[in-house]
Amino acid sequence: MPDMGMVVKWFEFCRVEDKCSTDCPYFDNTGSARECTNKLAKDVLTLLKEQEEVTRCKDCKWYDERISMCDNCVLPREPTFFCADGKQRG
Q1: Quick check: pTM over 0.85?
Q2: Is 36 within 8 Å of 11 (Cβ atoms)?
Q3: 78: pLDDT strictly greater than 90
């Protein structure tokens, strides 16, 4: 798995700078910026795909539409709200 801190650092560098850095772990000795960015993009996509899916209240298995609450919520929530304990209705 790619290191999040490293990917963010070099993604930000590539976004701001108009040149490659030999310090960058994605640097390609052929001088091909395209090859560097392809490798970086692959790691960015890997990290994005590994993120947990967010479950909105309206899709949570514990959500009761009649009272706009679920067993995990203390207060009524908007249907688009989400929490870390939400589980997708199955």
Answers
A1: no
A2: no
A3: no
